[in-house]
Please model this.
Amino acid sequence: MGEVILASEECDVANEVICAPTDVKELFEFDEAIFTVFGVGVTKTIFLMFLAAFVVVALLYFGLRKRQLVPSKFGSAIEALLEFVRDGIAKDVIGPEGYKYVPYLTAIFFFILVGNLFEVTPFINFPITSRMAIPAFLAIVTYVIFIFMGFAKNGFRYLIDTIWPMHVPIGLRWLVGLIELVSVFLLRPFTLAVRLFANMVAGHLMLTLLLGSGVIFLTAVGDIGIRALIGIPWFVLGVAIFVFEVVVSVLQAYIFTLLSAVYIQSSIQFEH
Model:
């Protein structure tokens, strides 16, 4: 709850119904270095990004290092997630060729999932995917993969057939081709990144305002008396949003991974 209280500590509980920070950027931007490595300052965002990567490696290592006839509950959970990405996303969406993309799809699914769940992790309370640079980087990696594979599998015909789709009536071919060109080569990485970013920003902001307001009002009961009860519905609603954000975190990791697989499939089998 550290981030929540920090965001609202300036609140005038006698006059404000919801305690909102003067600048919401302070909920997402951490410019001060928490420590330095070889003279390079490491901010909270950078630290959490590496922590998310370390958690993913640890989950996979400890979940898969001992294959047993009857695996532990933890091992079973990790294997179930891996099978879900391998069979439910890579194989079902891309087809038999999907197996070669399983490492990448698994990596982004687990990384985004852990990064999203940092939002509801005590003493962290900050989803790293609410910083646009991280979803944008992951979207660009997906973009490079599906564009590269599109040209590698289909040659220059990948671009020609996108601009001039033969299955469309000739009168509409130029319009559909223009829409496809903009969609495939410009909009896909942008929308892929913004979808994840916007959802995590909205959730983080709602949790901060609702839980922060609830805590501040309830702890100020000695100063504002009965009006402190305003904090109860805010806090209860914040807890409900907290539970909902767990679902959103998992769902957004799935959607990003699924769309990455869909874009790859549409590039290597674009004639379909």
Summary: The CA atoms of residues 120 and 242 lie 7 Å apart. Residues 2-268 form one domain. The chain has one domain: 2-268.
